[in-house]
């Protein structure tokens, strides 16, 4: 398992039917085990936020994405309040991207996590 870094990326991935693709975390995952989550992970040294996001998507689900847009950056003060943890690094940031995939669920290959599903608003 990768250690906690200072920058992370995650993605809200939408298919042509406007469904959201989510990953189920493993039961032994350190943060929120067995919960549904967005795909993502740590940004490695030498990567910018977009390159880190694209690498994480290749590693976790092997999807080819389009219409990728950064839509929100979450900083340490917000995370500390949400997680109720005071031990988070002071310069942490999570970069959230929105992206689309072609909707063919057969192309998804989960290499991390306990599975995936698509979700709708209703």
Notes on the protein architecture:
It contains 2 helices and 7 strands, in the order E-E-E-E-H-E-H-E-E. The N and C termini lie far apart (34 Å). The N terminus is likely disordered. With 122 residues, the chain is an alpha+beta fold.
Q: Which characteristics define this entry?
A:
2 helices; alpha+beta; 16% helix; globular
Which structural category do the helix and sheet elements fall into?
alpha+beta
What is the distance, rounded to the nearest whole angstrom, between the alpha carbons of the first and last residues?
34 Å
Rg, alpha carbons: 14 Å
The overall pLDDT, averaged over residues, is: 83
The proportion of residues in beta strands is 25-35%
Q: What ranges have pLDDT less than 50 throughout 5 or more consecutive residues?
A: 1-5
SSE layout and pairings?
Layout (H helix, E strand, L loop, with lengths): L6 E8 L5 E5 L11 E2 L1 E4 L6 H12 L5 E10 H8 L9 E8 L14 E5 L3
Parallel strand pairs: 1-6
Antiparallel strand pairs: 1-2, 1-4, 2-3, 2-7, 5-6
What's the short story on this structure?
The chain has 122 residues and is α+β, with helices and mostly antiparallel strands.
